[in-house]
Amino acid sequence: MKRNCSMVLRFTKQELDVLTKKARKTKYSRESYCRNILNGAKVYEHNVDVPRLILEVKRVGNSLNQIAKVANAQQLVDVPLLRKTMAELQHVLDMIVNSYETEV
Q1: Calpha distance 80→63 (Å, rounded)
Q2: What is the pTM of this model?
Q3: Residue 33 pLDDT > 70, yes or no?
């Protein structure tokens, strides 16, 4: 949709600072942030550290792979280690979900 209508809106310095900070947290421009809020969209912070999350997922995946290799070679499963790894995986999944649930 082409936006060909404009409007001048005046802010105090404090209001503009608040708007800028909230927009930055969402990775939207100020204009896009305002349009999303105006249209009733829920706007969320993008506070996830993606490289760290990728590293965590890889680490848990490697642990699961090692458990699978041992289980296959010895025809048994180390249940405590499996439970620990599954708990770590759940923690990483929770981090991913929580990173997108912080509403601005």
Answers
A1: 13
A2: 0.50
A3: yes
